[in-house]
């Protein structure tokens, strides 16, 4: 079994052997059985630390206790996740698995895989790929672990059925993509809800997102670009459009919105200045639709001064990025 699918209990045992500690000692401290909502509380002692865990089965409870012990050992500098990687283990997964074990079957209307595929198609991402990583445990309490991969982004989920593990992995992926792609929060139901409420604050929020999406929706982003590679985005564009720093010097010196437009036109880019706080002090963002979103903030007593501040900040950054 490869390292990245090891459970917390397996990792804790391996760590104890590697460091020369006594094996982890588990003991059950509380249990409720014979109902649809079974509960087990475990305590584990190892390497001078003590941790507890809770779950709807003894196996999950022990994993939870081991996971919490590993976190304590990591804080003490004894456990390094890079040396002995651990399978992803989240409280949300435990809760969903407990609901399943308690008889809460997946409703036919709940399907995370289909909407994930729709999101990938809409955002021009690779189709999600699901892979079974492991099947562990006795016949009466088998755990299935599935991985969901969209390009280089991966999520992992565990459950007592293959179907639920796959669905949970898809759900985790959607949550992760929402963090990466902010406009995903503006889905159909939220858009409709905001329009129905139509309060001033929510209307402004809706308009801001509409403007942001209109600007960046025209960009087919390079999904392989990382934040750490941001400085190279403009140099790549300069190479693509056969430009040198000298082509931008005059615009950089003028530092006005008109010169910014000329600057961006040379690389077929656009910008927008969006107010995000309309009460004093006024706050605006200046966005440029590069692969990795370029944003500069501006603050001032009125919109014009806030815009001027954002422009100055933008030109300072652009001056650094436009290199020979």
UniProtKB/TrEMBL annotation:
* GO biological process entries: regulation of regulatory ncRNA processing; siRNA processing
Cellular component per GO? Answer: cytoplasm; nucleus; RISC complex; RISC-loading complex
- To which species is this protein native? Spodoptera frugiperda (Fall armyworm)
Q: What is this protein called?
A: R2D2-PAb
Q: Name one Pfam family in it.
A: dsrm
Q: Which SUPFAM superfamilies match?
A: dsRNA-binding domain-like (SSF54768)
Q: What one GO molecular function would you report for this record?
A: double-stranded RNA binding
Q: Which residues form the DRBM domain?
A: 7-75, 111-179
Which keywords has UniProt assigned to this entry?
RNA-binding
């Amino acid at each position: 079994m490869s390292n990245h699918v090891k459970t917390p209990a397996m990792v804790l045992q391996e760590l104890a052997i590697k460091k020369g500690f006594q094996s982890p000692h588990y003991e059950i401290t509380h249990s409720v059985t014979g109902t649809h909502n079974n509960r087990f509380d475990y305590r584990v002692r190892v390497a001078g630390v003590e941790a507890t865990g809770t779950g709807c089965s003894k196996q999950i409870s022990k994993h939870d206790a081991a996971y919490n012990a590993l976190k304590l050992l990591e804080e003490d500098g004894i456990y390094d996740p890079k040396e002995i990687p651990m399978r992803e283990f989240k409280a949300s997964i435990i809760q969903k698995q407990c609901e399943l074990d308690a008889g809460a079957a997946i409703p036919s209307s709940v399907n995370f895989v289909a909407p994930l595929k729709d999101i990938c198609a809409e955002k021009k991402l690779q189709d999600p790929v699901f892979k079974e990583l492991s099947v562990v445990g006795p016949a009466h309490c088998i755990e299935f672990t599935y991985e969901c991969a969209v390009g280089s982004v991966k999520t992992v989920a565990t459950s007592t059925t293959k179907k639920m593990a796959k669905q949970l992995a898809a759900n985790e992926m959607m949550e992760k993509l929402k963090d990466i792609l902010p406009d995903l929060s503006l889905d159909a139901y939220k858009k409709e809800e905001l329009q129905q409420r139509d309060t001033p604050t929510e209307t402004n929020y809706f308009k801001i997102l509409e403007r942001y999406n209109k600007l960046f929706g025209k960009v087919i982003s390079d999904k392989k670009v990382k934040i750490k590679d941001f400085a190279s985005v403009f140099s790549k564009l300069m190479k693509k459009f056969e430009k040198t720093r000298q082509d931008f010097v005059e615009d950089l010196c003028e530092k006005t919105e008109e010169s910014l437009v000329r600057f961006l036109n040379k690389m077929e880019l656009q910008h927008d200045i969006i107010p995000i706080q309309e009460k004093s002090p006024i706050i605006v963002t200046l966005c440029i639709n590069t692969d990795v979103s370029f944003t500069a903030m501006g603050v001032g007593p009125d919109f014009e001064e806030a815009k001027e501040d954002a422009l100055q900040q933008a030109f300072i950054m652009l001056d650094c990025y436009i290199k020979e």
